Amino acid sequence: MERLKTGIRGLDELLGGGFPKGKTILVVGSPGSGKTTFAMQYLYHGALLGEGGLYVSMDEPPENVKSDLSSFGWDLDGMEKSGKLIFVDATPLKRAGGSEEELEEEEYKIQEITFQGLIRTIRKIVDEEGISRIAVDPITPLMLRYETPLERRRALLLFFENLSRTKCTSIVTTELRTSVFRRSFQLEEFLSQGVILLHSIFHAGNLIRAIQIEKMRGIAHDVQPRPYRIGRDGIEVFPKDKIFG
Ligand SMILES: Nc1ncnc2c1ncn2[C@@H]1O[C@H](COP(=O)(O)OP(=O)(O)O)[C@@H](O)[C@H]1O
Ligand SMILES: [Mg+2]
Known about the structure:
Elements: E1 3-4, H1 11-15, E2 19-20, E3 24-29, H2 35-48, E4 52-57, H3 62-68, H4 76-81, E5 85-89, H5 115-129, E6 131-137, H6 140-143, H7 149-165, E7 169-175, H8 187-191, E8 194-203, E9 206-216, E10 226-231, E11 234-237
Parallel strand pairs: 3-7, 3-8, 4-5, 4-6, 6-7
Antiparallel strand pairs: 1-2, 8-9, 9-10, 10-11
This protein binds adenosine-5'-diphosphate (ADP) and magnesium ion (MG).
């Protein structure tokens, strides 16, 4: 199976080379665990390799996301100007049951504030701009639009199907409000081909960050939680270390 470099130092080693190409990988973690950093580092690194990246911002306008990530040494604006990174503002979708109002016409703004509109926008950009990496960050607000589990299920299925059809290698992040250990399995975990957990563990008065590849279909991978840190260059994983000594 062909692999894609993740751009996250140490992670490729756990994956035996990188993400399996064309798959959708879910990154699960609590607020502050580094999901957005992970997603952007993946896209930015791809852009450096000449692979076009699409960032779909669901929680905050892209400008806010960029400014939150400005302490990392990544030239996101430069990449955007050169067309290697494209940002889509999908935050209007967040409003539960929002009316189908029109957005101001601008290149690659979502035309209709509907789920279908978002899917169409993503597919159009992928086709026209030669995108090979997608990050949807986070999928959570989208789910709040739907009142019944059945509606949520349909929407998620449709979304994952369409990501898969793009042939891109995609990261979808999902926000967790409880400990990774205590969570109940969510539908999106069943729909993705890979699941990566970002744990925050309190141990002896210290916060320990640990990353764990829970599943990655079709490849052999490390299954242990491994320490990671967030520093000036983004996320770094220590693939040989154990979390407790
Ligand atoms: N330059 C930096 N150096 C070290 N840590 C940083 C830096 N910038 C951000 N962080 C850390 O990264 C965290 C934010 O990660 P983020 O990707 O926004 O998480 P999430 O999307 O899961 O909420 C912050 O809580 C902060 O601890
Ligand atoms: Mg985030």
